[in-house]
């Protein structure tokens, strides 16, 4: 965290300066983490939008049925040798 003209720190005790430095480092880490999470969120939203466009363009019921079939094959609802 930088302030315009960091003159306000002048004259503070060493312990206070150390505490300020720790808080500034913590803030920098949190800002970096927030930025990374925002990039991740943006990427996921773009992927979701792309997937919705694919589904909306007429994927048809056959595609969805195939997805459902594949989803059940991994479950314990039926014998594993009946799955394609």
TrEMBL record:
<dbReference type="GO" id="GO:0070840">
    <property type="term" value="F:dynein complex binding"/>
</dbReference>
<feature type="coiled-coil region">
    <location>
        <begin position="16"/>
        <end position="54"/>
    </location>
</feature>
<protein>
    <recommendedName>
        <fullName>Centromere protein Cenp-F N-terminal domain-containing protein</fullName>
    </recommendedName>
</protein>
<dbReference type="InterPro" id="IPR043513">
    <property type="entry name" value="Cenp-F"/>
</dbReference>
<dbReference type="GO" id="GO:0010389">
    <property type="term" value="P:regulation of G2/M transition of mitotic cell cycle"/>
</dbReference>
<keyword id="KW-0175">Coiled coil</keyword>
<feature type="domain" description="Centromere protein Cenp-F N-terminal">
    <location>
        <begin position="1"/>
        <end position="56"/>
    </location>
</feature>
<dbReference type="GO" id="GO:0008017">
    <property type="term" value="F:microtubule binding"/>
</dbReference>
<dbReference type="InterPro" id="IPR018463">
    <property type="entry name" value="Centromere_CenpF_N"/>
</dbReference>
<dbReference type="GO" id="GO:0000278">
    <property type="term" value="P:mitotic cell cycle"/>
</dbReference>
<dbReference type="GO" id="GO:0000922">
    <property type="term" value="C:spindle pole"/>
</dbReference>
<dbReference type="Pfam" id="PF10481">
    <property type="entry name" value="CENP-F_N"/>
</dbReference>
<dbReference type="GO" id="GO:0005634">
    <property type="term" value="C:nucleus"/>
</dbReference>
<dbReference type="GO" id="GO:0051310">
    <property type="term" value="P:metaphase chromosome alignment"/>
</dbReference>
<dbReference type="GO" id="GO:0000775">
    <property type="term" value="C:chromosome, centromeric region"/>
</dbReference>
